[in-house]
Amino acid sequence: MRNYAKGYRAEREIVHELSRRGFMVIRAPHSGSIGLASPDVIAAKDGKLIVLECKSREEAFTVPPEQLEELKNWQEVAPAHAYIAWKLNRRGWTFLRLDDVAANAGHVGKKFAEEKGITIEDI
Amino acid sequence: MRNYAKGYRAEREIVHELSRRGFMVIRAPHSGSIGLASPDVIAAKDGKLIVLECKSREEAFTVPPEQLEELKNWQEVAPAHAYIAWKLNRRGWTFLRLDDVAANAGHVGKKFAEEKGITIEDI
Fold first, then answer.
1. What percent of chain A has pLDDT over 90?
2. A56 near A6, Cβ under 8 Å?
3. Which residue in the list A31, A33, A38, A56 is annotated as catalytic?
């Protein structure tokens, strides 16, 4: 499956999962057609606002500085709980707190995810 | 100008205006490609969450029941402040509270907007 299709499917999956858990959810448009970066997904329930960047590749990755910065803005201004949501084929979704990822210079690998990751119940 | 282009331009305008006022803002995708309705614009700042449906036609209009319902869900679940944002060529933007619009069966005309409308400073 191509990366784009895989990423899209993964995002759709997380939108439905959050919706099933009672959140109001929006998948943000990807293209920066209006020149503003944005998280992939925004969800809100009972005064809790969550912003997510979704990743579905199998290998370790680095979140670009501009994505970290945008999530940080949401975290501070909105304020929102910001996570990198990583889907691994055999293990499902892991949520990594923005602050942990930023402290690791954006690097996310399997060991890091095992140590720092939380589940959707805990976001 | 075609309605689509006009609507798009109006939304982009309001996104930039809210952004200029310090809000984190997202323009939601229009196509219901994942089967979930959503507001046109979401903005957040200092714990205040705002959801908007944007209208830019010159004549009176009726907000469809499913849009009222979706805004009401955001208002109650998130919770968010929900408005219909109406742009009139000569008068700029007016914001109509969801509850007022719903109480009027979704109908929005110029007289209603004069009586009930508030400015962007007051949302």
1. 75
2. yes
3. A31
CATH code of the domain containing A47: 3.40.1350.10
Which residue of chain A comes nearest to B11, CA vs CA? A34
> Which pLDDT score is estimated for A2?
65
Enclosing domain of residue A102: 3-122
- In chain B, how many domains are there? 1
> B22 to chain A: nearest residue by CA?
A77
Q: What pLDDT, in 10s, does the model give residues B41-98?
A: 999 999 999 999 999 998 999 999 999 999 999 999 999 999 999 998 888 899 999 9
Q: Note whether A47 contacts B: Cβ–Cβ < 8 A.
A: yes
**HEC readout, B13-78:** HHHHHHHHCCCEEEECCCCCCCCCCCCCEEEEECCEEEEEEEECCCCCEECCHHHHHHHHHHHHHC
Quote the minimal CA–CA distance from A90 to chain B in Å.
Answer: 24
pLDDT bucket at A33, cuts 50 / 70 / 90: very low
Peptide bond into B64 cis (omega under 30): no
pTM > 0.80: yes or no? yes
Of the candidates B16, B25, B79, the beta carbon closest to that of A47 is on B79
The sign one gets for the Cα dihedral B83, B88, B93, B94 is negative
User: What per-residue confidence (pLDDT) applies to B31?
Assistant: 56
Q: Does A107 touch chain B (CB under 8 A)?
A: no
